[in-house]
Design a protein that fits this description.
Blueprint: E1 2-7, H1 13-21, E2 27-33, H2 37-64, H3 68-86, E3 90-92, H4 95-98, E4 106-109, H5 117-125, E5 129-132, H6 140-153, E6 157-159, H7 167-177, E7 184-192, H8 197-201, H9 216-220, H10 222-232, E8 235-243, E9 254-261, E10 266-272, E11 283-289, E12 293-295, E13 301-303, H11 307-320, H12 328-342, H13 350-369, E14 373-374
Parallel strand pairs: 1-2, 1-4, 2-3, 4-5, 5-6, 7-10
Antiparallel strand pairs: 7-11, 8-9, 8-14, 9-10, 11-12, 12-13
Helix pairs in contact: 1-2, 2-3, 5-6, 6-13, 7-10, 10-13
This protein binds nicotinamide-adenine-dinucleotide.
The site of nicotinamide-adenine-dinucleotide has 22 residues, from helix 5.
């Protein structure tokens, strides 16, 4: 059994609790922590309620089951969830205290971006596995310290980028890595979101450089930009413009960037939280190669001037890449559990999420200097650290 502690008991934490409660044979939540004690107390109650709700679901399934085998399976899960609801959940107000809890084997970090590194490194040094909310950290200095802490303590470390755990994303990755699109020429990602001022006013850390560590590009754009960079490869240079048009915030609410990848392809990143909805998908990735083009989100598809090739490639990918058993964040949390049990790397490693931070820091550097920013950002570069 993996015993988990949740650090940070705000908006996203109930999703983590709910997902873990779906794997009650493998995971038990045993501790919660927030610097605001009432929030941690509230999540302790939510842990209990969530297990009891799961138990009710299994009772219903037991009643509706059509075979004895199913009845026995659901009755057992009902009992496991009822037992899980009775397990003591300890409340902490300091992550340093939670990571000392000997019952805890793994932690989920659900604090704001500026507060990811300290609990992550403390947990790693205490030998606990870490599932961290994204983005990994606000700069490369912190991200590299977290990656190093995971490696030196030999713990499993993953950062929430569930967008990669999706059949379309996986088919795109395979097509590109196997060279099926031919040489990659261009790729673009659009993150066109709309957020009112009330969103930014809902938390003191939101919209600030110190708290959110970036705006539409770094924070809101991170899922699509991470997926895009995972597919496209290493960036060698970026030139960007950005502005804050519609919100009273420090960070940008609109940015446009032009990239050159190491393999020669051109790229484009557009990110906004001022984009009124209704005319285009809120997130979109399209990649164009010499032989074929692929769209990844919102819908997976392959196109080519050679229609037979497109059809054949589509069929090949559908045959080779099966629907993952669990998608998105559920899939990633299940993979984290399996990585611990099987003592293997998680599907998404700390190292693999680093480019999202590096390229966004490069975008901010280019805006600050008015010049293209070269990658990689070296440790002596002011944009590597804070
Ligand atoms: N809310 C969402 O829908 C959502 C979705 C996806 C990802 N995320 C990510 O999850 C993370 C948290 O977001 P949120 O919306 O839950 O934020 P939030 O502000 O609602 O909650 C964060 C909580 O962390 C606590 N906290 C801060 N520092 C702490 C520390 N050192 N130790 C313990 N607790 C501490 C705060 O008191 C607060 O209760 C962010 O990285 C965010 O990007 C949130």
């Amino acid at each position: 059994m993996i015993n988990v502690g949740i650090i940070g008991c705000g908006g996203i934490s109930p999703s983590h609790i709910n997902i873990y409660s779906g794997f009650p044979e493998e995971v038990q939540i045993v501790a919660v922590c927030d610097i605001v004690k009432e929030r941690a107390e509230n999540r302790k109650q939510i842990v209990r309620d969530t297990y009891l709700n799961r138990a009710k679901e299994y009772q219903k399934r037991t009643e509706e089951a059509t075979s004895q085998e199913e009845k026995d399976k659901y009755a057992e899960l009902d009992q496991i969830c009822q037992n899980a609801a009775e397990v003591e959940v300890k409340v902490y107000t300091s992550h340093d205290e939670l990571v000392k809890d000997e019952r805890v084997n793994a932690v989920n970090i659900c604090t704001p971006p500026f507060a990811h590194p300290a609990p992550m490194i403390a947990a790693a040094n205490a030998g606990k596995h870490v599932f961290c909310e994204g983005p990994i950290a606000g700069d490369l200095k912190q991200a590299d310290a977290m990656i190093a802490a995971a490696r030196s303590n030999n713990i499993k470390f993953t950062v929430q980028y569930g967008t990669r755990i999706n059949r379309g994303s996986m088919m795109a990755k395979k097509a590109i890595d196997d060279g099926k699109l031919g040489k990659i020429l261009m790729g673009k990602v659009d993150v066109m979101w709309y957020r009112g001022q009330s969103y930014y006013d809902s938390g003191a850390w939101r919209g600030t450089w110190a708290g959110e560590r970036g705006g539409a590009t770094f924070h809101h754009g991170r899922y699509a930009i991470d997926l895009y960079l995972w597919l496209m490869g290493e960036v060698s240079e970026v030139y960007a413009q950005m502005d804050t048009f519609t919100h009273k915030i420090e960070v940008e609410d609109c940015s446009m960037s032009v990239l050159r990848f190491k393999h020669g392809a051109l790229g484009q990143i557009t990110a906004s939280t001022s984009a009124h909805p209704g005319i285009a998908p809120s997130q979109q990735i399209e990649i164009f190669g010499e032989k074929a083009a692929i769209s990844v989100i919102p819908n997976w598809n392959i196109g080519s001037s050679d229609e037979n090739y497109a059809e054949q490639l589509k069929q090949e990918l559908e045959d080779d890449v099966k629907e993952p058993p669990y998608n998105a964040m559920v899939g990633q949390m299940k993979d984290f559990i399996d990585a611990i049990v099987e003592d293997r790397e998680p599907y998404i490693t700390g190292e693999s999420v680093r480019p999202q931070v590096e390229v966004t820091r490069g975008i901010y550097k280019s805006v600050a200097t008015g010049q293209p920013a070269k990658m990689p950002l070296k440790p002596y570069d002011p944009f590597y650290g804070d």
